[in-house]
Each structure stands twice: as structure tokens, then as C-alpha cells.
Amino acid sequence: MRKSHIFLFLGTVILLSSCGVRKNNNTVGVLTENKTFDIYKDVKNKKLTLFLEEWIGVKHKLGGNDKDGVDCSSFSQFLQKTVFDNTINRIAKDQALQIEEKPIQDLSEGDLVFFSFLQNGSIDHVGVYLQNDFFVHASTSRGVVIDYLKKINYQKYLIKAGTVKHINK
What we know:
Layout: H1 2-16, H2 33-42, H3 46-55, E1 65-66, E2 69-70, H4 72-84, H5 92-95, E3 99-101, E4 112-115, E5 125-129, E6 134-139, E7 143-148, H6 152-155, E8 158-164
């Protein structure tokens, strides 16, 4: 019986490493419905706009990969495949190895942004850049939402960002 508890614990740790688990104590910058609409209208890729309209508000579910619940890395993986036809890994830290890094000011729609909310500094959260310093992600406390990248909570923990590398077939 004790071994099963260890395996359960290890499985939970692995799943938690794909999306940072933290409480969102700072609600400054939470978007209203009207502000979210304004961001949609700034998005140039209409396929991305339609994708966002379908997924905004889907609840967070650790290890989830559908509209019943999704975690950050599964959400970014599905968005990349559906909207940009990019195939990326399932785990956030592995996705970070698949980008060409670039400065925040040079980000484009669909670029990935990576965060470390844990004390160890390893990547544990991912989002997808939209426009005008906004990004979409599966928040552990609010589900799939659009947030402002320059909000102090995100600036403090942003590790890297960039464009998914295209693999020649």
C-alpha cells in the first residue's frame, strides 16, 4: 500500500510541474468583457480569434486537455496545432526548448511566453502571446483567460519567450 502512495505522489508532482500552481492574490489587470473584446479585435489572425472565443472561460484542470478542463501546457499545445499548425511537446518546460528566443518587445501573435512561479526557477507555466502585451493562458485559479504581460505578477516570473521553431519535413 505504501508504494502506491509514493507513485501517486510522484505522479502528482510530475503533473504539477507542467503548470505552475499558485494563488492569484493580485486581481489588478483582470480583464472585463469589454476589454477582452477590444483585444480580440486587435488580433490579426481570425482563426486565433475564433479559437479564443471558444476557449475563454474553460476551467483549469491539472492534466486536462479538453473543454471540460485544461492545463496551461495542453492549452498552448492545442492552440499551436489548431491555429498555427505547429506540433509542440506536452509539458511547458519541454515546449520552452522548441522556441527561438526573442525579446518581449519583438513578440508576435502565437509566440510562447514561459514563467517560473516556483522557487526553483524551472519553467512551470506557459501562455500564448496575442497583441499589445496581452497573452492567453490557462490560469490555475481562473481558467483560460487573457492577461496583461506587463503586470508585475507576470514580469517578475517571466523566464523566456519566443517563436516556435519550424521543423523542415
